[in-house]
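_Full entry_
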Amino acid sequence: MTDTAKKPHGPDGTACPDNDNNPLLNWTEFPDFGLIEPRHVEPAVGAALTRADAELSALEAAKPTGWDDLMAPLERLGDRVEHVWGVAGHLNAVRNSVPLREAYQRAQPNVVQFLHRLGQSRGLFDGYVGLRGGNEYAGYDGARRRVLDSAVRDARLAGVDLDGAARERFLAIGKELADLGTRFQNNVLDATKAFSLTLKDPDEIAGLPATARQLAAQAAVAAGNEGATADAGPWVITLDAPSFTPFMQHARRRDLREKLYRAFITRASAGPLDNLPIIRRSLVLSREKANMLGYGTYAEMSLTRRMAPDVAAVEKLLLRLRDAARPAALRDLADLRELARQAGAAEAENLQNWDATFWAERLREKKFRLTDEQLRPYFPLPGVLDGLFGLAERLFDIRVRAADGQAPIWHPDVRFFRVADGAGRHVASFYLDPYSRPAEKRGGAWMDSLYGRSAACAAPGRRVRLGVAYICCNQTPPSSDTPSLMSFDEVLTLFHEFGHALQHMLTRVDCGLAAGINNIEWDAVELASQFMENWCHDRPTLRGLARHWQTGKPLPDEMIDSLIAARSFREGSATLRQVNFSMIDMELYHRHDPAGQDSPLDVQRRIAAETLVMPPLPEDRFLCSFSHIFAGGYSAGYYSYKWAAVLSADAFGAFEEAGLHDEQAVRKLGRRFRDTVLALGGSRHPMEVFKDFRGREPQPEALLRHSGLV
């Protein structure tokens, strides 16, 4: 146990109530993750909520009239709850088990109830309104004004104006929606784990690259097939991305691709794991919640917290992207069919969904003479990290240094890093959990925070508390004799999540309620992450991070040329896919009547017919694993990826216009990006922040150009 874990104090240094031996409750700088067990969750959450409830009652009774009497104590109160609940949620995502899941679900209703009480507090609401109308308001900086405006809006969205039975019903809806989201995600995780394809004949894995065979052999060993090897098998293929994606790209056995594909698109759609009833119920409750607050639809309510002004503006962007992408996507499909014909493939005249990824990879290889297997040796994780951190130093004048062993971790593969500014001053820290662990770790990739920058929550004797981030990916793990050799998509993902972490860590806002990604409109929060992805197609950046893991030789110029040229490869199809997801999301939460005759699957099929050039199978149930909009916070917000893509492409366009070869210009713009987008957090409206950096409002031309759609 670390010294920090032994101290019975909260994150701001104050004493915690009871549970002095509970490692989830009693830590200061870092939790001792290895000591936290499922049995600790409920007592720790209960103690934290009991204290927070008492503090809230005292705050309401005091009727504070100044910022330091109201907002600072309120920030500390919420931070102490997150101190416990946030760590429990993180472990539930990266170290999931049945006991932990059950403990988390038992504690969740009480957390939701407290958060509703906090949001519906009339005393706090009156305090917010009083501060906005008081004498001090004129002297507040932009961050405090934004926080107060958001507090008033969020209180109304939390039902502060509701009374009696309506308030109780609103609380019950919130609790049920939270439970439904947790169940949805657990069902997806369980359904993904439940399916596997055991292969024993070498013909069954024909075409599969060496890294995929190695991973399949490791999965076979984990499944009890001792002695399984990459060359001799047996091999186990799963629905986890590092296993599923390479199989769909490379396996020559069409029948096996079909079997895997059908399993993937029907995850969590049958039996006790069926998520369709959860989807139906969630849509009913979301509509009811919005109606109770005076909104016609959940989407209208959701957009009050977004940069996009209304549903019409969102749909205008989506339709423009659809119309630009559809002709390119039709050409993409024609190219695949033609290649299959040239190869004499039986499926050439009847190309199916399980064929598209396979033939797209063959077309990529033919067109650019480049495969993931050729690229992987040049992208070992240690080298990619060096290149990524070097880019951050070049652009933002920061230093990232390994600090393994200086903080407790939850798995041996987890790394820990510290970040310093150009003068060597410590500014933040982060954990990196890079590899796929399908038995216990949820899929996808994400950035989250252990805690953020805050003056109000600083320990005694310190001016400000500095932020700590989690970066979690699901990339290909190392094998017994090689490091983690990354696909280019995995490199893009790492850059993306590091962009989120940079915005969390490089904020200069001391008001924790507006620092980092806090108080940033949801459809603008992807700006920094997608901006970082652009650098993966920048020649100097590629030269700096791509070196062969054995020889140390840099990625050859001809391969760099191919990577850059391939940037817009099948971008019409990729854009349509994202537009399809976004339009389904908006339709479900805006026009769809959850109590009507049409099912959510009818909506899925109708929107697909309007957008996609290759229709989904009749049995496609991808909605049942669409965690983003039913369990991940993107309800009526999936369009945010494309909305932010306009911002990020236009921001990167400033570097292109200045000249990516001009090192002085690149560094100057990088500092400006740091001092605006990364530093200002939620202290100003994202449109103002963007204009501070770019000098004008965003324009979509750069995104269309990068995508090859103009």
The chain has 27 helices and seven strands.
